[in-house]
Amino acid sequence: MRAVGIKQLKARLSEYIRLVKGGDTILVTERDRVVAEIRPARRQAAVHPEIEDLLDALAESGEITRASLPKEDWTWKTAGLGLPEGTAMALLDDLRGERGVAR
């Protein structure tokens, strides 16, 4: 990890970018206080990634957890909760009203 002042960073930006590409992290300072970090990107973002590839990459990096249930089981089941029919919708309508959100 290296620290560099803004003036020096501007003067030698290409050199510092090469260091970052090599894996270094650069701390940018202003009056001896760290104000920013320049570090390697975590992954290259594709312009139009396939969603499954993107989700797999995010799961591998620990940024998300993939659903363990098959899609056909992704439903809201309210039967057996002991609530009268329409309760969930009434609660959502109340919340939307408090936030001023139209349905």
Structure description:
The chain has 103 residues and is an alpha+beta fold. The chain has a domain at 1-66: 3-Layer(aba) Sandwich (YefM-like fold), CATH 3.40.1620.10. Helices cover 37% and strands 15% of the residues. The chain contains 4 helices and 3 strands. The chain has helices at 6-11, 13-21, 51-60, 87-99; strands at residues 2-5, 26-30, 33-38. It has a 3-stranded mixed sheet.
Layout of helices and strands, plus pairs?
Blueprint: E1 2-5, H1 6-11, H2 13-21, E2 26-30, E3 33-38, H3 51-60, H4 87-99
Parallel strand pairs: 1-2
Antiparallel strand pairs: 2-3
Name a few traits of the molecule.
single chain; 4 helices; 3-stranded mixed beta sheet; 103 residues; alpha+beta; YefM-like fold
Concise overview:
The chain is 37% helix and 15% strand. With 103 residues, it is an alpha+beta fold.
Reported for the largest beta sheet, the result is:
3 strands, mixed
Known CATH architecture of the domain at 1-66: 3-Layer(aba) Sandwich
Low-confidence stretches: none
Q: What's the N-to-C terminus distance? A: 51 Å
What characteristic shape results from the CA principal axes? elongated
Going by helix content, strand content and strand pairing, the class is alpha+beta
Number of helical segments with 4 or more residues: 4
CATH topology group of the domain at 1-66: YefM-like fold
Number of strands: 3
* CATH secondary-structure class of the domain at 1-66: Alpha Beta
